[in-house]
Amino acid sequence: MDTKDRTPADRQRTARVLAGATQAELADLWRAWGDGRPEIEYLRGPEAGLVMLQARTGGTGDRFHLGEATVTRATVAVRGAGDDAVGTAYVLGSHPEHAALAAIFDGLLGSADRERALAEVIEPLEHAQAERDRRRRADARSTVVDFFTVARENDGADDEDDE
């Protein structure tokens, strides 16, 4: 399957998962890929640059420039048994190895190894990221203060301590 045959929603999903993974996770998955590794040719080696971030006032209002962020990109050609595919990745920060590995897996998603890449790379990473997000949300919820309860506890009905 060529990269152009993938739907935009599918590409967004897999790009988000690959960019959200750590470099160590991707390196472990690449090592585990084993003997069937395709030949990789860098079409655009990992290179870092800046992108301008835009935001909107109130989330929906006028746009304004928020600042710049460092992004690393890479583009590779994945060449397997008569099956060539191109993979591209962008990751936040200056992480050339992360961008290169993400591009390789993106290329595999556009090749004959698509099903294997989905089953062995994307789905496990997606589950791990969902679990990590769930734990972070739970940690954040554990620190929430109910100010209405605090106000009721200190409603001033017991003013004996103030004298």
Can you tell me about this structure?
- By secondary structure, this protein is α+β, with helices and mostly antiparallel strands.
- Helices cover 45% and strands 28% of the residues.
- The chain has one domain (3-140).
- It has helices at 8-20, 23-33, 96-109, 114-141, 147-153, and strands spanning 39-56, 63-80, 83-92.
- A three-stranded antiparallel β-sheet has the order 1-2-3.
- A hairpin with a 6-residue loop joins β1 and β2 (63-80).
- α2 crosses α3.
How many structural units, i.e. domains?
1
> What strand order characterises the main sheet?
1-2-3
* Intertermini distance: 80 Å
Number of strands: 3
Rg, Cα atoms, Å? 23 Å
Note poorly predicted spans: none
Helical percentage: 40-55%
In percent terms, what proportion of residues is strand? 25-35%
Described by strand count, sense and barrel closure, the largest sheet is: 3 strands, antiparallel
Summarize the helix and strand pattern as letters: HHEEEHHH
Let me know the average pLDDT.
88
Structural class: alpha+beta
The best one-word shape is extended
* Number of H- or I-type helical stretches: 5
Short description:
The protein is α+β, with helices and mostly antiparallel strands and 163 residues long. The chain has five helices and three strands, in the order ααβββααα.
